[in-house]
Write a structure and sequence with these properties.
The chain is mainly alpha-helical and 122 residues long. It contains six helices and no strands. Helix 1 crosses helix 2 and helix 4 packs antiparallel against helix 6. The longest helix is centred in the middle third of the chain and has 30 residues. It is elongated, with a radius of gyration of 22 Å. 2% of the residues are buried.
């Protein structure tokens, strides 16, 4: 483990103590759900900020696309976002829902690829 073996073992012990506390203490599951929800909100905010930064850095390129290509790009991003938001419901719906979910993500990925290909082709 190297020179920080005691530090690593301490960190592992802290994680185990927290896991046992969530498992055994009353209300631990509710606390864990709350922390998970807070982390989810922070993660989604980070992804949104990343999207904003990418848009601001590539704004000239995006606005330089033909209207059809730009519409296809925005539609593909909206379709991918919808599919990701509805993941749980679609997978819980059974095999057909999972196939539709995969088809939606595949269509969004293909549309983004076709916009990229049209942009890089002269």
């Amino acid at each position: 483990m190297g020179p920080d073996a005691v530090k690593h073992l301490r960190n592992i012990a802290i994680i185990i103590v927290l896991a046992v506390a969530v498992w055994k203490l009353p209300g631990g599951g509710t606390g864990a759900n709350t922390v998970g929800n807070v982390f989810s909100v922070i993660f989604i905010g980070g992804v949104g900020f990343l999207g904003f930064r990418i848009y601001m850095e590539r704004r000239d390129t995006i606005l330089g696309l033909e209207e059809r290509q730009r519409g296809l790009l925005y539609g593909a991003l909206a379709l991918a976002a919808f599919a990701l938001i509805a993941t749980r419901r679609m997978w819980d719906a059974g095999g057909l829902g999972a196939l539709i979910w995969l088809a939606m993500l595949g269509a969004a990925a293909y549309a983004i690829y076709s916009v990229w290909r049209a942009h890089t082709t002269y």
